[in-house]
Sequence to fold (113 residues):
Amino acid sequence: MAKTVQEQLDAALARVEKLRAKLNAVTILANVDVGNRVEFTFGRAEKKRTLSGVVIAVGEDAKAGKLAAIQSGEGMDVTTYKVRFADITTNFDAPEGEVSDDAGIEADPLSEA
Fold:
């Protein structure tokens, strides 16, 4: 059964959102550096929570991959967390994601619609 134009548009918009999220994740991972303000998830299952802090060190582990030490809290309540780069959800100091001209796709395929 053929899809309606609206269904095709909805599918295209969903794909664009997925690609934007993927581009954002790649941009975050490529640009995490010491001194960046970030937001990250920490914990498992029902104890998982979103925190924010400042990256104080970056490194690599054979098992876990790229890691960041992130300082969160203020004053005597400061805590340092070691998290995988994949757990960093937002890098407030990263440049906006950009697609190079030779990538073969438009940055916003719906901009001319």
